[in-house]
Amino acid sequence: MIKFPFKQVYFEISGVCNAKCPFCVTGTGRLPSGGFISVDFFKKSIDKLLETKLIDNQSALFLYNWGEPFLHPNFAEIIEYVNEKGVKFSLSSNASVYKEFTQKTIENLQEISFSLPGFSQDSYNRVHGFNFDKIKNNIVRFVDNLKKVGYQNKVKIFYHIYQFNLDEIVSAKEFCKAVNGDFFPYFAFIADYEKAKNYLLNRLSADDMRALAESIILADMAKKIETKPPGYRCPQNDILVLDEHAEILTCCFLPKNHPDYSCGNLFNLESENFSGKTIKDECKFCLESGLSYCVHTVTAPDFTTLLIKAVA
Fold first, then answer.
1. What is the DSSP code string of 173-195?
2. Which of 9, 58, 119, 264 could be bridged to 172 by S-S, CB 3.0 to 4.6 A?
3. pLDDT over 90 at 175, yes or no
């Protein structure tokens, strides 16, 4: 049973991402790029969410899903309105674009995180495709700016562990410590639903399988599938996900071209919209195969504990 108001809401303000991640549905460019939500439509959507009691002032609003929120040309206006309505919000970025914050725009900011696919130019060449030094400089600028305007929490650094960046974890941790951030290393996964599904069904081409084997630590996926608890409930049942068109998504993982992508639109609400989040055909495979458990169970190898302690 789905409970209202939603405690977690992911609202895609930018259907665009500039990273070139080879195992992400947006990074590969397999799907047409999305767009940016207009400020006016965003305001109407937030008002609708509040009026229909789908969210309240205790809900956590995450202004991203697959896109890079800082690419939005009217980013400041977006977060100013969230603050004006008293809604708590969080941001996640690849740190490729720098944005200034003010005391007004951080009023209800609960969390800001940055993702690192490694800690060298070589790793960035293989994943995000950005200038590594620029990324580091931008994170330092963000930290300095946030401290200046009174942000009390630490920034979070999410380090995606690949086969090729294991030896960079300590350097990334040292950098995180230098900027007084919280460090979260975890195994990278196949962030492309169809590719992940085909991997589990042994349908990948030899080239795709080799690319995965050389980058993703596949043993982690296998371990999660083996340890999926009986009666596992998909967390997406209790999360509201909206794209930049205010489509109510079945979950955060299905791509735009999938027939089960949407359950309807926020501005055309019907009783079955939310029940559709749990009865779509694709949900059965995702649950039974263990894919849902893989995606929602964030893990890191045991040895990272020793590495992190080395620079604690």
1. HHHHHHTT-EEEEEE---B-HHH
2. 119
3. yes
